[in-house]
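thought: fold this chain, then report.
action: predict
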Amino acid sequence: MAASQHIFRLAIGAGLLACPAVGAASPMKFDCDVPADRFSSVSDETAGALAISGTIALVAAREGKYQPVAGARLISSDGSRRVGFQLVAPSAHRTEFNIVFNIDAGDGLKQYTMGQVDMHTPASFSLAISDAGKISLAIGDKSFDGGSLALSGGKIEVFCSTGQFKFADLNFGDLGRPAPAPSS
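observation:
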C-alpha cells in the first residue's frame, strides 16, 4: 500500500507541475483604436479587490465633438459608486494631457483636475482601493490620495475615446491576472 500511495503522490505532483500557476498569467495589452467620438473598453467583473495597473501611450489623437481621452475606473457591483481617472487632451493637437480624477460615492460624479502628464512617452498608472476603502492613484511620477470609498468587488475597466491609445502591462486585481479580451 505504501508503494501505491507514493505513486499516487508522484502522479498528483506531476499533474500540479503541468498546470499553470494561478495568477502567473502574463499582463495583457489593449490597442484602443477608435474613430472620433467613439469609444472602446476592456472590463472584467471580480468579487475580490478592485485594482488595476499598466501603462498608457498615445498613438494618435483625433478631432471630433469629444476630446481624446483614455483612463481606468473601478465600479461597484450595482453600478452606483465608482472611482477612476481620465487623461484628457485639451485638443487633438496637444500631447500634454490633464489628469482628471473622478469619484461618485453614490451622490453624483465629482471631477478634479490633478495635474498634467506628457503623453510623448508611455505613462505608467495604478488605481486601487484598499480593504479599508482608501483610494490610491499613481500616474507617471505623480501620486494622489483619492480619499476613501467602500467598494469590494465589482467591475474593473480601461477605456479610450477619439483616438488611439496603447495600454500595456495591464493587470486587473491583486492577483496580477491579465485583462480580458477587448470589446467595443
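thought: worth noting. The chain is about 10% helix and 55% strand.
final: C-alpha cells above.
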